[in-house]
């Protein structure tokens, strides 16, 4: 009796200890603990064995090396205790990643367990073997995996299906060589819904990233459709992904498949609902118009339901709606109120709803949307208010009948909130590009002054409008003059805009704007340290020095204005098939094609290994002595000279003849500030084409000589002030032609 009570107390005490947390296994290492652990592993007490393995795994989790106990732990693999077996497999799996050579010691245990009478043990062995990413173990997994595919228990077959996916990820070529595609098709035809769902998940991976596609057939497609209501939500998601990739051969099959999928739009899981919508989007082109209209109503209802879910779901749904509107243009046109911004919406949802309202705008719904925008503009979140101002300008561009109302609303916003002036100026620039008659610059400048426009983007927009429409602004020239006086105090983009605006104004009134043009060109070319700004100024001065007519110069400077397109999205760069495939994926959320997310499947680890080996090879290479700088420069100079000559050499006569340095020109042209740099004098007036009836541009004085710079030596100009060696003559000088696309100047304001 006493022995019985003692054993009962020990059992109760042991159960109580088992119910406690496992934090005791993460205690500090004690002296002699390794010997104690080895003694417990080789003992006869199952409880102490289990506690020892837990202690080992805890040490392994903390980053301590416990690989020297590998043999002692592997001996416990044949144990009949399922919990202990799982712990042993976890230890083997973790150790094999760091020390692959020891993984072979546990292969026999795995092979024995794959023939165990318990389906749980068989599945556990197959799962663990397929998770060991060691090439030497992979060959031992093929036969057990093939047996597991034909196992009578569905739990083992379900695990085998995922094992096929792991094999495909580890070695794609071996997957095809061993003809595991047939085994995958067998699992797709399985009577168990979970087995078929797992096989569908692997099929998505194989067809998306594999070199050989698995052709569909009506047998397993119908089987998946039959299993669809019986699977859990994630199984339904993968089956819907497979069904979305199907291309039925006839109209009847497509309509039947679509009808079986429609009930999934009432599911509680948003992923299942979006998967069903993806199937509809992919099969709509193969169905009758009547069925498409019926499906569109169901899609409309499902999207409205998802739009009332949590904020994260709303965001993803709005992103998918942008793509769906390309496939179904009339979707949600009468349900705008579901996407009105609420005060409680987080900022990322507000911005996405704002873009969606703009996308759904039509001449009929535009007045209501504009009223909403007017309400949003009175908010306290300045980031959102700025986006609203841009949206008002986009609405004016998209709906022509609302352009005047949008312009008036922008003026009212500035009256109520003067801090919005820079953003309104930027928005006004977009409106003026589409509707020049709605120029609001005169009123904005008269009421608030150009000095209030302090942001870089706003100053760039202001200068662009002044360059294009300065004649319609009362004090436009005075504003430009203030910018010229402080040109070196502005940002790079503003300096480029000042140059462009002054040149445009000069082309409209050469006599009045010649002093300002000379001043800004002289200031920029002699004082600016920015290479882009100097190059732009030199390019303008080069054009002016070649005796081009006003009309020729306008064709070069103005180019062709790119029309404003507010409906442009990431889908413009994708085919319709790619767009449909991107639905319900991260590609839609990130607005990028789905091919840009992952490297070729199964090669990620190989690429990392290749990078490591490249680094090791680079470290092993002997260091080479540096080359002689003078010889490098001498070798590079002849190759660089023709490139620069083609960029800047513009011949006014088109003959390609070269004139000697210092030759005089009888025509009134601008002196070329780059003449000393490239030894290319202005063309003589006598050689000009007689067909040019336009007067030549007035001359401008040569800018003062500037100190020799490093850039001069790159082109062989020399540091001395004397003559330079002329580059080789070009048979066909590069004459600028009017471009059919927007010039770089116009791109600054796009």
Automatic annotation (TrEMBL):
It comes from the Eukaryota. Keywords: Membrane, Protein transport, Transport. It is found in: Endomembrane system. GO terms for biological process: intracellular protein transport; vesicle-mediated transport. Residues 609-618 have a biased composition (Acidic residues). Residues 30-546 form the Clathrin/coatomer adaptor adaptin-like N-terminal domain. Residues 609-638, 680-750 are annotated as: Disordered. One of its GO terms (cellular component) is membrane coat. Residues 629-638, 685-697, 725-740 have a biased composition (Low complexity). GO terms for molecular function: clathrin binding. The keyword Membrane applies. It holds the Pfam family Adaptin_N. Belongs to the adaptor complexes large subunit family. This is AP complex subunit beta. It comes from Novymonas esmeraldas. The lineage of its organism: Eukaryota, Discoba, Euglenozoa, Kinetoplastea, Metakinetoplastina.
